[in-house]
Specification:
The complex is a heterodimer of chains A (312) and B (254). With 312 residues, chain A is of the alpha/beta class. Chain A has twelve helices and 13 strands. The longest helix of chain B has 44 residues.
Amino acid sequence: MTGDDEAVRCSALTKTFGARIAVDRLDLELRAGESLAVIGPNGAGKTTTIRMIACMTRPSSGSLRVLGLEPARHATVIRHRIGVVQQHNALDRELSVLDNLRLYGRYYGMSAAEAERRSRHLLDFMKLTAKADAGVRQLSGGQARRLSIARALINDPALVLLDEPTTGLDPQARQMLWQRLRTLRKRGTALLITSHYMPEVEQLCDRVLLLADGRLVTSGHPRDLVARHCSREVVTVRLRVGDPRPEPAALSGLGDFVATVGDRVVVHTPDARTSLRALGDLLTPEAVHVRRSSLEDAYLRLTGLNLTEERR
Amino acid sequence: MRLAWRVVEFQVYHYRRTWQSSVVGTVVFPVLALLVLGIGVDRLIGASDALGGIRYLDFVAPAVLAGTAMQVAATEATMPIFVGLRLTRTAEAMLATPIGPSGLVDGHLLWICLRTATASLVLFGLSAWLGVFTISTLVPVLGICLLVALAHAGPLLAYSVRQDTAYGLVAISRLFVLPMMLGAGTLAPVDLMPPFLAYVARATPLWHGAQLCRAAAGATMPAWTIAVHVGYLLAWAGIGYAFARRTFNRRLGL
């Protein structure tokens, strides 16, 4: 990776809060025009990673460079060139939609005219022009989220950090946001996204880092992760209410990976037909669902301990 | 500093929509206090020997100005910071911009100066009309009020950013701000207080600010005493500012 297109590079990045290790020796690289997802269960260290890259908290150890600069020495310069969408919209509910954007532009040293021009452009980009003079209180959840993302783009950033950008959005709003984020990536903007919504990660991201307990579990292209950690197909069987739960040992030969979650048996298998025949000998299911495996299956398999704990 | 003015710009926009909630505490209440104490109590007790033969109005009005400066600082340096960081998170959003933690501190202090200046102007005008100040003392009185506000604002900003709930802010208001407003040599001379409380009152920045305002109103005071009062307030303002920036940077940034 050359210095010119380097968006983020960190090595052995660690953040501790007292005795708790939030991020543990994380290595990460992100280039211009690339989209990287950081996924993992709650408390995995995703938001802390974003906050360190955004110069909002100091790493405890390790090296970190953002846009080729060290946050400890060049925080203000870095903040000038990045956009941050935090989990909370953090919009001023007393101000209008346009004023929220214009004032944010002023934080970057823009003239009033430039801030106004950029704000109106972004309102158009996010399809919020009709709401320009409305109060933030009048916006729907999806509109507020779009405004929050528009605000993070006010300085035309080279790197955008998005912490769960589409949580709580309806499918139409989510599709629209994905389209806008893809447009940004094509323009050369680097995107770092955290998400719990795996279809979003598959749609938007070139690479995925999976964290658990602050540590990197695995990384790669979404398709590669699925191929590496999942069988070709997933069979989900819902058991009838009152039926006894099968013994794990009896199910172990049904596929490459078998888990019982509540009233469901999930089987990762290279051949669904064979697994279904074997299942029929053991169970009388209420419903059966067969599909191609996805990133969510790889995620659940790799963070499967949580499922085990829940099952107990 | 240029970016700190952008924080002030945000505050002005915000204040245009929310001024009603704070103007009562920082302008209306002090004006009423000045009228009730300065005119009402003044008529009740007249010129007292304990006050050195001056009108009670001349004694209390400068203290009301200094107390209002403290009140503005306490209002703006506590709850808005807490709300912006913990509830609405608008202040947290600023931290991701070039404003950063230091700009947030500088911007808030500038805003507190602006609010203090406007509240002080109103009270100065009323006091001058009542014959407490001459117009020529406007600039020094405004300077003293700004100094009093800054002496309180820095430490209060540092305190507020450390709070995870609003209880600590209520406590600071009840346990420190209100008692100082009443007992820091504001409504009665500290010499009339029990010795221990008199020492405590003299240690408060508000007492030093009130004394300076009284000097501006014509109270006789040696130059060295004025220098001590100014130095004491400058020390609070300077140390408070450094403490606030350090705390903000440690808590909210790099």
